[in-house]
Amino acid sequence: MRLKDLAEHLGLSQTTVSRALNGYPEVNEATRLRVAETAARLGYRPNASALRLATGRSGAVGLVLRGADELGPHMSEFLAGMGGRMGTEEVDIIVTTVDSYAEEVAAYRRIAASQKVDAIVLHSPALRDERAEMLLDLKIPFVLHGRTNIGKPVAWLDIDNTGAVERATSHLLDLGHRRIVLLNGLKGRTFAEHREIGYLAALSARGVPFDPALMGNSVFTDEVAFRLAQAMLELRPRPTAFLAGSMMTALGVFRAIRQAGLELGRDVSMIAHDDVFPYLNADNMYPTMSTTRSSIRQAGMRIGELILQLLAGKPAADIHELWPVELVLRESSGPASER
Description:
Shape: elongated
Number of helices: 12
Largest sheet: 6 strands, parallel
Number of strands: 12
Low-confidence stretches: none
Strand order of the largest sheet: 2-1-3-4-5-11
Structural class: alpha/beta
């Protein structure tokens, strides 16, 4: 079926049908829905090359990844979610890998000059992210996976990292734990700073002094977490509970606990941030893992939808979503051990 045939079937002009299919804001919602439903029912698929000529869009979204730590399981889950959503709109994802901040900046400038993408997904933002300021200057639409404060409206989706860690810490305090380790992300990253705020707020509310020796900041890998947890378990008095920043971190902590001859859930408790990995299920671990649960795949899908809204004309200032995080209690978190 051609665009002309679809327009005749609907009794609309080809221009109106084309604009409806491409999300132009001047087409009212009722017409847009009628066109989309009819196109789906009749199997109409726009020619990708013609679509790009008509809209001036490249039909691609960009993502720049810096360092090996950004190419791990979290990113694969995120890309799976976003790719699934963008694929339904025949939008491709162009991934660029770099080794340094300078190369990342150069990549954004190259992307802007080449006009290869219609929008950028900016991930792991800092509290004041210079990359976001640069993308605004380059006039490249973007959606943040996280938040930043640059004094200008930007589109973002984030989870409630502060509330999640505050609830998890409070639960451990309720169980009698006072020596609680926080294995957090890199300093300066917004999500890590927000998690630290939640941790400190929970301790302060119970009058428990903060011990800087019980906080670690690093990338989320099994090996790094193992080394950090190993060192902390040698402290005296030793910690009785861990808050692991990711399931990959939790694996390293679990290994350190076992090597120390301790038992998870009895001698040492742990709550991990669980990104709902299909190949690392908290329910199937032994003992089962207590988690603050949030799906990074679902976040990827939703950011794909927000990009489409941004490209259709929705103001960046109106694209703000903060998702709650669920606390799921299982066997790895128990009362503080007196040993």
